[in-house]
Structures are given as structure tokens and as C-alpha cells.
Amino acid sequence: METQKCDLCRGGFCNICPQTKKNWDLDRLFEDLKCVLILQDDYESIDKVPKEAWKSAQRGNKTLKAKEKCWLCLLLQGYDVKQIESYLHLTNIKGDLSKSIYKRISFLASGKQIGDWARVPIYLEHHVNSAYTWNYRKNTYTSVTNEEIGINIKLSKTDENPINRSRIVEVFRLLKIDIREEDIEIIG
């Protein structure tokens, strides 16, 4: 991946933030986090914010700091706190992250406490309040959207551990994968 000039990493050269911009709708996310900056002192989570207050906050002039945007990009690309510190040659940013990015993402995620930094992308992808925001992840898998794909899984059975096709089907359905019992081949 080619290193590019990055407007988030203090004007330096970076290959992480531009990649994050390809995978995430950062403009919308930063805009919504601006609203959070304005509203977080008055409301405990996005669920408590009246629509009028949210619309008013959208016109506000607060913004995330460049370093916060950079840190968020690194979190969205799967970096943990130690990796961010190493990448940016910083120390002890955990407290700053807790007071800024972590707190704001929790606000967007309806006040849910995010216990692990690695879960920030998951919360932004699956737990934001859709009344005000949307999924910030861009669809990076357009080639398989609405297309049928095949999955070939062969399981071996033993006399001590019989395999029940209906349980396998249920597991796939929980994963939102459509599969029929007759598509399952058990060998052994």
C-alpha cells in the first residue's frame, strides 16, 4: 500500500487513514461525532436526545481534534492502544482515548459501555441508533452483495458424537446464512 499525505496525521505521510476513508464514511461519522461533542454534556446517550436538539447540534461549530480523528481511523483499522502509540510514537494515550473517542462512540451506541478498544468498529457498525445515524462502514464487499455463494462443509461423525443436521442448519441461520438440511453432507 502506498503511503499518502494524510490530513489527519498532523499533515504527515500515512497509509492507514486514507485506507480507513475507503472503508468507512468518515465525513458522516465526524459530523455525527461533532453533534455528540455538543450534546454529551446534556444527555447520557443518543437515545435521550430530542430530534430538534440533534438538528440544532448539526449546525454547531465544534469539531474533533486532528489527533482524535487519526486515533479513530487507527481504531477502525483494528489497531489497539499500544499499536497506536507505537505507530504515532506516543505514550499513555489510553486516558485521552477514554475521555474522547471511547466516550463519544459509547454515546452513539446508545450508551452501551464498550469494554474493549477492538470493539469500537463493531459498535459503529452494529450498535448505533438508526433514528439519528446509520452504519458508518461502507460496503466493501460489493462483489458478493445479493449474490448466491456456495459453502462446502464436510463434517466427520463418530459413534460417540452424532451430528444433527437441524442443529447445523440453525447455527447457519443464526449467522444469517441460508442453508438447507439436504445441502449438508456428513461423512464418516
Can you give a write-up of this model?
The chain is mainly α and 188 residues long. The protein contains eight helices and four strands; from the N terminus they run ββαααααααβαβ. It has a two-stranded antiparallel ribbon. A two-stranded parallel sheet has the order 3-4. A hairpin with a 7-residue loop joins strand 1 (4-5) and strand 2 (13-14). Helix 1 (16-23) crosses helix 4, helix 2 (26-39) packs across helix 3 and helix 2 packs across helix 6 (94-108). The longest helix is centred in the middle third of the chain and has 15 residues, at 94-108. It is globular and about 60 Å long. The N and C termini lie far apart (45 Å). The model has no long low-confidence stretch (mean pLDDT 76).
Residues in helices, as a percent range = 40-55%
Stretches where pLDDT is under 50 for at least 5 consecutive residues are: none
| Binned strand content | 5-15%
**Biggest β-sheet: count, sense, barrel?**
2 strands, antiparallel
First-last Cα distance: 45 Å
Based on helices, strands and strand pairing, what is the structural class?
Answer: mainly alpha
Overall 3D form:
globular
pLDDT averaged residue by residue: 76
Q: How many E strands?
A: 4
Write out the strand line-up for the largest beta sheet, numbering strands in chain order.
1-2
Question: How much is the radius of gyration in Å?
Answer: 21 Å
Number of helices: 8
- Reading the helices and strands in chain order gives EEHHHHHHHEHE
